[in-house]
Amino acid sequence: MAPVPSPGSIIVADWHRCKDSKEYFSKILHRKRRKNFGLLESPVMPPHLAVDTVHYKIFISGKSGVGKTSLAARLAGQNIPNMHYDTTGIETTVVYWPVKLRESGRVLFFRLQLWDCGENALRRFDHLLPACKEQVDAVLFLFSFTDRTSFDDLSNQIAKWTEPAVGRVVKLVVGTKLRFDLFMHHDVAERDVKDFQERERLPVLRMGGEVSDRLGDVAPLLNCLAEQLWHQDCLAAALASHHSQQEAVTLV
Predict the structure, then answer these.
(1) What distances in angstroms separate CA 123 from CA 64, 65, 87, 169, one per listed residue?
(2) What percent of the chain has pLDDT over 70?
(3) What CA–CA distance (Å, rounded) separates 73 from 226?
(4) How far apart are CA 34 and CA 213, in angstroms?
(5) Helices (H), the chain
(6) I need a labelling partner for 152 at 20 to 30 A (CA). Which of 28, 107, 113, 190 fits?
(7) What is the arithmetic mean of pLDDT over 136-151?
């Protein structure tokens, strides 16, 4: 397993708070609210601020009711459903997120296509999981702090995505705090989360609470995801270059 980059080592952390980011983030906002982008839509930048866009496919994995659909909506700045319903098939959500690379100062737009598929649908239809796995770049494994079984099931979820056929995939764990503030206690203790993180060597992030339009509410997760995706691409490019050099030496 490749080492996980430390937060802020590849991209500028909290760049959305810097003055030089305003013009970029303004392209994903409309009247101070996030824009909803369709599959064929993208932010439009002026010619003097031309920005490359990198595309990634993200699958959201988790038991029914942990908040997969809500997380996708939250990351895209959309309204979260008031009532829970089990996703009947595959739903996709497009999220654009600008980042600034720390070393070069280059700005990139990350286009994250989030794939959400209901647990019951995955069990009923054998073709859905292979479709979700096809050319996937990252998986978000969800659990709820108010549902111990969803936390205990994480190892089984992760095992499905460690097969050689899946290939190189970024893995993040997200703990949702559904109704977290309404309970005097929660079913998953912080010590359990820390032990899991040390054992699995995977980042564990948290999302929950009230919905707002503040970029800072989603920035930690989106920045962490973007950083690891870019790190993964850099490793793949370096490996490909190394193989090409070896082949050239062999031919000579």
Answers:
(1) 12, 15, 12, 22
(2) 85
(3) 18
(4) 7
(5) 22-25, 68-76, 119-124, 128-133, 148-152, 154-159, 190-200, 219-251
(6) 113
(7) 94
How far is Cα 31 from Cα 216, in angstroms, rounded to an integer?
A: 17
Contact 232, 13 (CB under 8 A): no
Tokens 């090409």 belong to 244
List, for residues 17-59, the tens digit of each pLDDT value.
999 999 999 999 988 889 999 888 999 999 888 899 999 999 9
Length of the chain, in residues: 252
Checking DSSP bridges between strand 107-117 and strand 52-61, what pairing results, if any?
Answer: parallel
- Concatenated DSSP letters of 25-57: HGGGEETTEEPPB-TT------GGG--EEEEEE
* Percent of the chain that is helix, strand, coil (3-state, to 5): 40, 25, 35
Distance CA 164, CA 128 (A): 19
CA distances from 59 to 37, 79, 81, 151, 198 (A): 18, 20, 20, 18, 23
Residue 242 has pLDDT above 60, yes or no: no
